[in-house]
Specification:
Number of strands: 30
CATH class of the largest domain: Alpha Beta
Number of domains: 5
Low-confidence stretches: 249-258, 698-704
Helix content: 25-40%
CATH topology of the largest domain: Rossmann fold
Strand order of the largest sheet: 9-8-11-10-12-13-14
Mean pLDDT: 91
Structural class: alpha/beta
Largest sheet: 7 strands, mixed
CATH superfamily of the largest domain: Succinyl-CoA synthetase domains
CATH architecture of the largest domain: 3-Layer(aba) Sandwich
Length: about 700
Amino acid sequence: MLDKLFSPESIAVIGASKTVGKVGYDTMSNLVRSGFAGPIIPVNSAGGELFGLKVYPQIAEYPDPVDLVVIAVPADMVPAAAREAVKKKAGAIVVVASGFKETGDVGKALEAELTEICRRGGVRLLGPNCLGIINTAIKLNASFSKRIPQAGHLSIFSQSGALCTAMMDIADERELGVSKSISIGNKADITEVDVLEALANDDETKVIVGYLEDISDGDRFVKAAEEASSQKPVVVLKSGTTLAGSRAAANHTGVLVGKDTAYGAAFKRAGICRADSFEALFDYATALALQPTPKGDRVLIITNSGGSGTMAADAVEKSGMSVVGLSDSLQQKFKKVLPSNAFIANPIDLSNDAEPKHYSAAIDIAVADGSFDAILVVLAPQYMSQPAPTVRAIVAHMDESMPVLASFLGGSDIMPSRKELAAAGLPFYDSPERAVGALKAMYEYGVWRRRPARQVVRFPVNRRRVERIITRRQRTGRLRLDEVKSKDILKAYGFHIMEGRLTSSPEEAVEYARFIGFPVAMKVVSPHIVHKSDLGGVRLNIGSSQEVADAYDLMMLRIRKHAPMARVEGIYVEKMAEKGLEVIIGMTRDPQFGPMLMFGLGGIFVEVMKDVTFHLAPITEEEAVQMLKSTRSYQLLEGKRGLKEVDIKAIAVSLQRISQLTTDFPQIKELDINPLIVGEMGNEPVVADARMTFAQTYCSIVRK
């Protein structure tokens, strides 16, 4: 519980200062100026008076209880101040000082000492190296921010104190208003997970906006974010997505940043609206705070310019949403109320002399018709344009059942109307592309909120067979599993494996090939060779005994030449599978979030286009299908461009089986089925090649 942090009845500032510009002065000034109703206790060894309040030399001299203590002294003095706060039985401590783990080993040791003091004292700690906390509902500003934000329903959390102030500034500019602002800093105790859990249940918060550089506990974060997103929109900007960004993040907060693909998968699972820029962060938050989420992806564009309408239509189509056409009856309705020179289609071009009443009339008809899920109004400044009256007309005819977003193009001529838009609660954007980006985020969040309850299917499998294989491997320390044993594990979990055997001589290979029937495939098996094809270690479609014998000798010769130190266990002879579409499915275990499933088409789609998608395990059938649909190459699975439709459900089942396997066995560090050959409906996918890697030790992140 963070009640003493969010809603204290009394506050002390250790390090309160009379010097303007010092953190201790600014924090005291904010507390007094914000109008906090409870006792404010400045603490400084010099004593005296500050802002008309008695300054206590020590916090122990204040006679009454203190709920929240803000520590604004240099880093080396913080542990002693924290001990005094603990003795006073404070409920929470905020440390705004820097100079802790972000500075190196000395600072890291100092932070560890501070954290232990608070832990033993049962006191929650915000920071260190943070801006502080703001709760406008009780007029609390326990921070050294220059801005006292307007009250509202947007709550902000951030690892960067500077970005907290920037976000509050933008929130005020857009007339959103702030409920709470929490700077979590180094997260020595209170993390983004604690904040999400608190804000999810906060009636004053309607939208949560966050900036993160890392995540402290991946499993807890996903659960907390999923719970919060189920109640209200959560919009997050995650930085440190590049190598340079990762280094900067480590320097700033003293943490290592995880793989960005894992964060993307975690955010998708938790229903977080992920912004890829600071600009997008508030584009999304503004729309979600002011407008209802669309029920579908059908967008009507209303404009006074053909060019700007075309730009908007392009942006909608590129986003994956729909610019739907108008029925004949709907066109007739529009023609009755719109100018005679208006172009009645989608986009609707009202022409350059459009009046405010034409915008409102078009909105009324669109809302009443039910053919659309969202409206985008685009206005370009022209001689006859009336931006401000147009804003008032739009706002007067908005409907709570359908989102309306506006893109008013231009500069100084449009600026006054933008302020009216903000005051009226209508989201506005400088370009159609930004407006559509926000609309797409709203749509995806609405889809996530309407998703069916998650039901993870459990397949009947031979778990004990897998346990025996893994146990033997871990005992010997041989952590890389070859194709033969990998397929053995996959077969135990319901995958279709063609008949095959490891052979140790040309004669044995020929005998087995005759037994299973031609054609066959032959592959070298070695713990030291991962990419067999590169060394001539794979031969396909072998159709006779002589070809088998020749292939065996030639493969062994090539391996001895190109990889003389490799230990070769033999040649795997396998019945050839029928032709089909080659896809790749796999898993890599992220240290933060656990097993992360991967899907992509084979060939250039993976190697060149990098057209792959990820999702956290365990996965439902619906989530597995959505993984497939999220690839750019999904249309090939559907049978477009001259290809036959493949069994999409069978691929989804394969992903679910991998999900079950890798959640059942945290020892599996990596798994790769490349390729999985998929045929038409009713044909079971075939594992053509596979490999796995085990961890020496393993984590037990298992998500239900």
